[in-house]
Amino acid sequence: MRNLIDFSGKKIIVAGASSGIGRQTAIVLSTVGARVILIARREEKLQETLRLLEGEGHSCYAADLSDLEGIEPLFKRIYEEQGASDGLVYCAGINSTLPLQQLKPQKLQDVFQTNFFGFIETVRQAVRRGRFNEGMRIVAVSSNAAIRGDKAHTAYSSSKAAMNAAVRCLAKELADKGININAVSPAVTNTEIYRQYASESSDSEKALMERQYLGLIEPEDVADSIVFLLSPAAKMITGTVLFVDGGLSSN
Question: What pLDDT score was predicted for residue 111?
């Protein structure tokens, strides 16, 4: 029987693995045989994720991906210690709720530093010669906010729109290396960011769910889609933004 979702012997880096979608993605990858390399800022949260993984051979690295100068030495160390990888998932990100009059350039820079600039530098380091195996797959976690505006979410929405645009460009550039790159675009997902948004938004949860008619997305719903895009089953998919949004984008 052909098994397209078998990651035995594969090494996958998950950046932003301390909670939410990143943590769940790492867990799902471990259940299908992958060795998972975890990256996140908080050491204690990384250790929590590590304890939830199935199998052996997993590892973790505490690092702040908003420190752009630190990404190169981080990946140098990872590849010296772990060898070439088969996949990268970029889940690192921060939210921001600021109206225009409070959105000073530094505030905008802070959001883009992690959500976009950190993403680009992480991919740049991951695809250097000798650091990836044949059939490398990259998946970025974007957001439905990239195409649906909301008050006071200019910084966050713009950073995710930039990520989507970069994925389309990078797909053409990385094809020469045999690397596929895609993004998943969740809508309202049951994570810390959602719970923060729900407490600040003027929209009620009922109103949100009327538009997102399949209901509140769970982190494992997004993780399953990420694992699919990392798998051989998605070998002809690149430069795509996959909407995992409970029907929201169809409204």
Answer: 96
Structure tokens at 203: 């929209």
For residue 33, the domain's CATH number is 3.40.50.720
Catalytic residue among 160, 185, 197, 225: 160
- Please state the pTM of the whole predicted model: 0.94
Q: Which of 156, 157, 159, 225 is catalytic?
A: 156
State the Cα–Cα distance between residues 205 and 185, nearest whole angstrom: 20
Residue from 18, 30, 85, 143 carrying the catalytic annotation: 143
pLDDT digits (tens, 9 = 90+) for 123-144: 999 999 999 999 999 999 999 9
Does 251 fall in a domain? no
143 is catalytic: yes
Domain extent at residue 87: 11-244
Phi, psi of 22 (to 5 degrees): -60, -45
pLDDT tens-place string over residues 76-127: 999 999 999 999 999 999 988 889 999 999 999 999 999 999 999 999 999 9
Domain count, the chain: 1
Q: Decide if 171 contacts 234 (C-beta within 8 A).
A: no
In a domain, 238, yes or no: yes
From CA 207, how far away is CA 209, in angstroms rounded? 5
61 within some domain: yes
